[in-house]
C-alpha cells in the first residue's frame, strides 16, 4: 500500500481522477498504485512525483 502517495495527493486536495488526468493514466491505475496492487513504470513514477511536487524517494522509498 502506498500511503505516502495517497497522503500527498489528499494534502493537495486532488482526487484520484484529477491526478490520473494530470499524469495521463486512468483513475483505476492511481487506485491500484495506492493500494499496492500495481507496480508503475519509472516514467510514471517520475510524472506522479513531479505533479505532486516531491521526489521519487518521498513517494516510493520504503523505510
Q: How does this structure look, described?
A:
- With 63 residues, the protein is mostly helical.
- It has a single domain, classed as lambda repressor-like DNA-binding domains (434 Repressor (Amino-terminal Domain)).
- It has 5 helices and no strands.
- The model has no long low-confidence stretch (mean pLDDT 95).
Keyword list:
63 residues; mainly alpha; 434 Repressor (Amino-terminal Domain); 0% strand
In short:
By secondary structure, the chain is mainly alpha-helical. Helices cover 67% and strands 0% of the residues. It has one domain (3-60): lambda repressor-like DNA-binding domains (434 Repressor (Amino-terminal Domain), Orthogonal Bundle).
Topology:
Layout: H1 3-11, H2 16-23, H3 27-35, H4 42-52, H5 56-60
Helix pairs in contact: 2-3
Amino acid at each position: 500500500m502506498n500511503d505516502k502517495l495517497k497522503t500527498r495527493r489528499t494534502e493537495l486536495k486532488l482526487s484520484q481522477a484529477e491526478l490520473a488526468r494530470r499524469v495521463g493514466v486512468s483513475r483505476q491505475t492511481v487506485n491500484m498504485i495506492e493500494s499496492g496492487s500495481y507496480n508503475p513504470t519509472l516514467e510514471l513514477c517520475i510524472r506522479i512525483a513531479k505533479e505532486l511536487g516531491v521526489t521519487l524517494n518521498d513517494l516510493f522509498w520504503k523505510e
